[in-house]
Amino acid sequence: MSEESGPYCETPPAESPERAEGPPYAECVLCRKPTEYAESVKGITLCPVCEWQEAQRTACSG
Predict the structure, then answer these.
(1) What H or E segment, with its residue span, contains residue 58?
(2) pTM of the entire structure?
(3) Is 10 left (phi over 0), alpha (psi -120 to 50) or beta?
(4) 31 φ, ψ to 5°?
């Protein structure tokens, strides 16, 4: 591992849908709380908390 890359794996940023400007918001598929995404967004939508937890689960573990 080079000095420049640091201790973490390099991963490309995840593609995420555009944030909604206002209600109605889509439900989180895990906890059913409102997300930051519009109801019209296709695919899996997660609230900020579940999104962060999912990122932690999929992050490099070393």
Answers:
(1) helix 48-58
(2) 0.58
(3) beta
(4) -115, -5
What's the CA gap between 37 and 11, in Å, rounded? 23
42: nearest Cα among 13, 7, 22, 16: 16
| pLDDT tens-digit readout, 3-58 | 555 566 665 555 556 777 767 888 999 999 999 898 888 888 899 999 999 889 88
Write down the domain spans for the chain: 25-58
Q: How far apart are CA 14 and CA 33, in angstroms?
A: 22
Look up residue 20 and give its two tokens: 């909604």
Q: How many C-alpha atoms does 58 have within 13 Å on its Cβ side? A: 11
CA 34/CA 37 separation, integer angstroms: 8
